[in-house]
Amino acid sequence: MSEKSFFRRLTSGLSRSASKLGGGIAGLASRKLDAATVEELEELLIQADVGTETAAKIARAVSDSRPGRSLDGGEIRTLVAKEIEKTLAPVAKPFSPDPAHKPLVVLAVGVNGSGKTTTLGKLAARLKADGNKVMLAAADTFRAAAIDQLKVWGERVGTEVVAKTPGADPAGVAFEALEKARAEKIDILLVDTAGRLQNKSALMDELQKINRVIKKLDAGAPHAVLLVLDATVDQNAISQVEVFAKTAGVTGLILTKLDGTAKGGILVALAAKFGLPVHFIGIGEAVDDLTPFDARAFSRALVGLTEESETA
User: Which domain holds residue 267?
Assistant: First the structure.
């Protein structure tokens, strides 16, 4: 995907956020950056889900950079985008498999409906395209649909899938997959896990069991735990990160479903609150629509700036 094509897709995906936040900012054009204007800007940012503290920090920084001046909408958007980028830049980290671990064991966690299984298939395709030997493990055995879906992705991208019948022990599937991956000299093992169990303690027990079992084969596994988040869930994403960080030891985030219905400001709030690496974003259904997270592009698209917009 070309850079221009990617930015257009990203802008389309964040159109809901951009229309509200960017449109609101346009309403502040030609007004002096006095206390009342800054307060309105802060409120717009809060409504965009960037978080209360972050909204106040961004609004204050914009005001301090151009005290008392009257700016046009484009200038304000550019200033806001720059401040958002400052929050996002530290977490924009590529997913870089460590060759010291072979196979590298990656757990994908997240609530059902977040796009977790689909994302894992796309990630398998990306990693394979980079020259890695990849294997998938269907350890979400609570849903037959998840097993079938992962098998379809395996066929689509030409990657072996280790799976058992619905209801099988998820830890057993993960163990068998790791055994097989080691025997076949696989570079990366991607393990899908269940996300909807009866309660948080059941979720914790299941994930901890998977961890215990695979550590019998590799004491350092899992080497990465990726939390897949649905960008349309707004503030619920914060509680999801809290739960999975505690239960699974999350090492990085993937934000999915940036397809026009999302309120992408939640990623700013997550970055400020947790500081977890954001490896990828999903901007569509195609296999190449899982793309590395770009803090600058995301920040500009979030406020409705185009590629051609001038830099203030």
Answer: 104-293
